[in-house]
Amino acid sequence: MWSAQAQEIQQRRGVQVVSPEIGGDNTVTFRLYAEDAQSVTVSGSWLGMGENLEMKKGSDGVWSATTKALEPSMYHYNFMLDGVSILDPRNPKALRDGTRYASTLIVPGKASDVFEVQDVPHGTIHKVWYDSPTLGLYRRMLVYTPAGYEESKEKYPVLYLLHGGGGDEEAWSSLGRANNILDNLIAAGKAKPMLVVMTNGNELQKSSVTEWPTNTNVVDRGPARGGETREQTVDRVTKFPNSLVNDVIPYVEKHFRVIANSENRAIAGLSMGSMQTQITTMTNPGFFQYIGCFSLGIHFNDQFEIVSNEILIPGYDKYLETMDNKLFYTGCGTEDFCYEGVQTLRKKLDEHKFEYVYNETGGGHTWANWRTYLSDYAPRLFK
Fold it and tell me: Environment class of residue 277 by beta-carbon count within 10 Å: exposed (0-12), middle (13-18) or buried (19+)?
């Protein structure tokens, strides 16, 4: 028989629930004990923009809702408790996307295997601080080295992997699970062992927001973006590509065992990182033999139209006739708000009869797609 103290502790803990619960049919049930709540919903990455899943309250004070069958993938979600976004208190798995935190779950299946933690040799993620004279900042990047790197004297090729707007140098390892993807592909013999350099693409930010006290991580240099001139916009968006070539790559090639030539350099980025990838390669022709552009092309909105007109389109028109890259890869979801811009990019490549690989998937501007593109892109590198 429980003591009065034990009973009191149990009452304070409230009703214990399981959440999330993944069914054998790939449906997911969410539960939250919130006896006094007036409304609870779930917002999740499998839902459309602005959509929410309504939860119903049971007599025991537990709110619950079940999704339709979900495709095998990794998803993130939050509960909206009386209009306030919270994590799932019963789920220890969570991630950070910029300043936003969300609970996560993985629906198992063949499509998820490539980014799950498998019983294979694992690489190492190094958190590296480096000086960037181009940006006038001391900054951080993450460098993945494949299993066996520490014991080997071998030199390796390098993939420079860029995140999207709102992300930072941790995005591709946490949300993109890039290290798991590379571990599994390399172990299966589907990809060559390589280094993956994951930088912070925000040109005024020293590192991820978790590393610095409030208001000390970002350097203010000039007007807000809304007040920029065309010249200031072009100058800003070329700062990081210049830093990548002038600061990041020399550091990596000095401090890691890598093969320092274009045939062993690859670059890829998603969304904002795709724009940075295009700018970097257009302004440094021949520097990378492998180029990957995920979910962003050219002419995607007014801000980037300035960049497209003054950098990307002239770059393509000038260099595509002479560029001889081994791979140009682009991918986009059919529901992505950048879909039209990616088609414009494809038309530009077709106009110059430039060969490329295009991967069109369902869904929108999501990590589910970007993990898929990396899983398809990495095996094509350094052949």
Answer: buried
